[in-house]
Design goal:
globular, 23% strand, alpha/beta, 8-stranded mixed β-sheet, 230 residues, 8 strands
Length: 230
């Protein structure tokens, strides 16, 4: 899916957020955010994860949402002070190593081929601190035999689609996480709203710098969060 696709989808995307919310709530429970955590949300879209994170018992003071679609970011809700939105590529993040304590990715990885998934996971590991946490949300298959049988035709089409149906691809992210150097710490199945996997993982070992350090957030690529731009 390219930027043109997401520009077309953006005005309507938030209509389906109620189906994402149960999994986003479980993801935040797994993440156990703290006030001093520095949080990065990759593939933030219209900032659904950040919106839920802002409602946590102890929301972080600093968070950044990254998406490559400026139009999706333009439909994000108002976010807390010091939180920012950035139009950037998740495979080449403009942040220094060890910049974040928590990285989240909701409904992103299943849209990508395996090599791209592992690139993004490796880049997330680079910007995470040594004891940082990664929380991933991906669509899941139904658990019952009947549910799987009913879901199979849709999944068959989703696997071959480059459009909206691609959002129904299921993905167990553990193999990609382990290949990218993470240890899975917890995994939860959510059967309300979109059936989903929520996975908590951490980098297994100390990380070497993947590429040259880049400057911290600044400049016109940041979308102010005191009101979304249109």
């Amino acid at each position: 899916m390219d930027e043109a696709h997401w520009s077309r989808v953006a005005p309507l995307y938030r209509w389906q957020m109620m189906l994402e919310r149960p999994a986003l709530a479980q993801a935040i429970a797994l993440a156990a955010p703290q006030r001093l955590d520095r949080v990065l949300d990759l593939g933030t879209g219209t900032a659904g994860m950040l919106e839920r994170l802002a409602q946590a018992a102890e929301p972080p003071e600093y968070a950044v949402g990254v998406d490559f679609s400026q139009e999706m970011l333009a439909h994000a809700p108002r976010l807390p002070p010091r939180w920012q939105l950035l139009c950037a590529e998740a495979r080449d993040l403009p942040f220094e190593d060890d910049s974040f304590d928590l990285v989240t990715m909701a409904y992103l990885l299943h849209l990508l081929p395996s090599p791209s998934r592992r690139e993004i996971l490796s880049e997330a590991a680079r910007v995470l601190t040594r004891r940082g946490r990664l929380v991933v949300v991906t669509p899941a298959r139904p658990r019952s035999l009947l549910g799987r049988a009913l879901f199979a035709p849709l999944e068959w089409r989703a696997e071959r689609s480059a459009g909206l149906l691609a959002g129904f691809r299921s993905l167990d992210p553990r193999a990609d996480l382990e290949a990218a150097g993470y240890a899975v710490r917890a995994m939860r199945y959510v059967d309300r709203g979109y059936r989903s996997w929520c996975v908590l993982a951490q980098p297994r070992a100390a990380k070497a710098a993947a590429h040259q350090n880049a400057p911290k957030l600044s400049g016109p690529m940041c979308v102010p969060t005191d009101g979304p731009t249109r």
